[in-house]
Amino acid sequence: MHGASALKNVTGDDHSASHSSDRDGSSSDGGDVVFDAGSVDAELGPEGEANKVREGQHDEKEIESLALPEDLSSLERIYILVKSDNEVQHIALLTLLPQYMEEVWAATDAVADSDALAAQAQAQAQAEIVSVLQNVLCQLQSLLPSILQKEEWMRNVILDNVRRIIEAARSSESRDILLACSLDLSSQLATRTSYGHASAEDVKVMQAMISILGLILSTAQQKQLRELAKAVCQDIDTEVRAAMALELGHLATADSDWFEQHMLGEFVELLRDEEIDVKTAAVEGLGKVASSVSASRFWEEVMPVFLTQHECLVCHAGDQGWLTTYSKEAQLLRESALALGPALHACESFLKESMQEHDSVLSRALDAFSPCVVSVDITTRCLCAYIMPGLVKTLGPGNYAKYLDAHYQELAADSAVEVRKTVVDSLEPVCVLLGKQRVARYLANMIQTLCRDGDREVRRVLVNAWPTIQDKFVVADPQHRASLLESLFSPCMDLLLPPWIDNVVRTDWRYRVAGLEAFDKLPSDLYDSSRVRQRCVPTFFDLMRNGAEPLRRAAARSLARIVATNPSAQKDAGLLHEIKSH
Question: Compositional bias (Low complexity) spans (predicted)?
Answer without folding.
Answer: 27-42
